[in-house]
Specification:
- With about 220 residues, this protein is α/β, with parallel strands linked by helices.
- About 50% of the residues lie in helices and about 10% in strands.
- The chain contains nine helices and five strands, in the order H-E-H-E-H-H-H-E-H-E-H-H-E-H.
- It has a five-stranded parallel sheet with strand order 2-3-1-4-5, sandwiched between helices.
- Helix 2 crosses helix 9 and helix 3 packs across helix 5.
- The chain is globular and about 40 Å long.
- The structure holds adenosine-5'-triphosphate, the ligand Nc1ccn([C@@H]2O[C@H](COP(=O)(O)O)[C@@H](O)[C@H]2O)c(=O)n1 and magnesium ion.
- The site of the ligand Nc1ccn([C@@H]2O[C@H](COP(=O)(O)O)[C@@H](O)[C@H]2O)c(=O)n1 has 18 residues, from helix 3 and helix 4.
- The ligand Nc1ccn([C@@H]2O[C@H](COP(=O)(O)O)[C@@H](O)[C@H]2O)c(=O)n1 binds next to helix 3 and helix 4.
- This is Adenylate kinase/UMP-CMP kinase protein.
- Keywords: Kinase, Transferase.
- Its EC number is 2.7.4.14, 2.7.4.22, 2.7.4.25.
Length: about 220
């Protein structure tokens, strides 16, 4: 656990992501958050797209938000790019501001937060800043060889989809992200899915977990 926290302490961070980034979210309304976790390439983004279509959630991928921040020319861009290339976890204050802004701008009240919290620092900071407790944690459990095969076949031009960075990402997942899943498991909040199966079969299992939310689709 100490590894990633240690890795982030000496990185200089300018936290202003936009003019309005300091506005807090949520306000008064009841917000439903599901954290979607699992190793790199386990299928989080793929299944979130399905859940959005069927259950009316807004999908927010922390990794996608960070990649968009690089493209936007933000002053944090170079730092974020270097962290992603190394498979390291970006300081929570940066990622949380991006998530809060995206939540606010969506106008929705139901969110799939994909790839976050990635370590204990992410988890504690999100809780402290937003006061949001997740409804549950959807955990995609997939064998490492299968995740590696999927990432190497993904072809989305991601700078971290190379074998050297993939190995670092797996190590970070085991050392920093699994303890977060264990934390939520101890609170009875984890819904574990066998993500090694074909996409359609995984979604059948996902649907069962989300069925209580069907009635809420607009
Ligand atoms: N169940 C599955 N069986 C086979 N291929 C899959 C399955 N789920 C997703 N894929 C494919 O594997 C690749 C990785 O999937 P996806 O991008 O959804 O993973 P991810 O968990 O979001 O990864 P990352 O953490 O790197 O963002 C994609 O090319 C996707 O089409
Ligand atoms: N909470 C997070 C989430 C992601 N990152 C960085 O982005 C990379 C890619 O994330 P994906 O979920 O899209 O695979 C990840 O390896 C981290 O470098 C982060 O720092 N914090
Ligand atoms: Mg993804």
């Amino acid at each position: 656990m100490g590894t990633m926290l240690d890795a982030t302490v000496d990185v200089p961070v300018a936290v202003e992501t936009s003019k309005d980034a300091d506005e807090s979210f949520p306000g008064d309304k009841k917000i439903t958050v599901v954290f979607v976790l699992g190793g790199p390439g386990s299928g989080k983004g793929t299944q979130c797209a399905n859940i959005v279509q069927h259950f009316g959630f807004t999908h927010l991928s922390a990794g996608d938000l960070l990649r968009a921040e690089i493209k936007s020319g933000s002053e944090n861009g170079t730092m974020i790019q270097n962290m992603i290339k190394e498979g390291k976890i970006v300081p929570s204050e940066v990622t949380i501001k991006l998530l809060q802004r995206a939540m606010r701008e969506s106008g929705n009240d139901k969110f799939l937060i994909d790839g976050f919290p990635r370590n204990e620092e992410n988890r504690a900071a999100f809780e402290e800043v937003t006061k949001i407790e997740p409804e549950f944690v959807l955990f995609f459990d997939c064998p490492e060889e299968e995740m590696q095969r999927r990432i190497l076949g993904r072809n989305q031009g991601r700078e971290d989809d190379n074998i050297e960075t993939i190995r670092k990402r797996f190590k970070v997942f085991m050392e920093s992200s699994l303890p977060v899943i264990e934390y939520y498991n101890s609170k009875g909040k984890v819904r574990k899915i066998d993500a090694g199966k074909p996409i359609e079969e995984v979604f059948e299992d996902v649907k069962e977990i989300f069925s209580p939310y069907s009635a809420q689709v607009a």
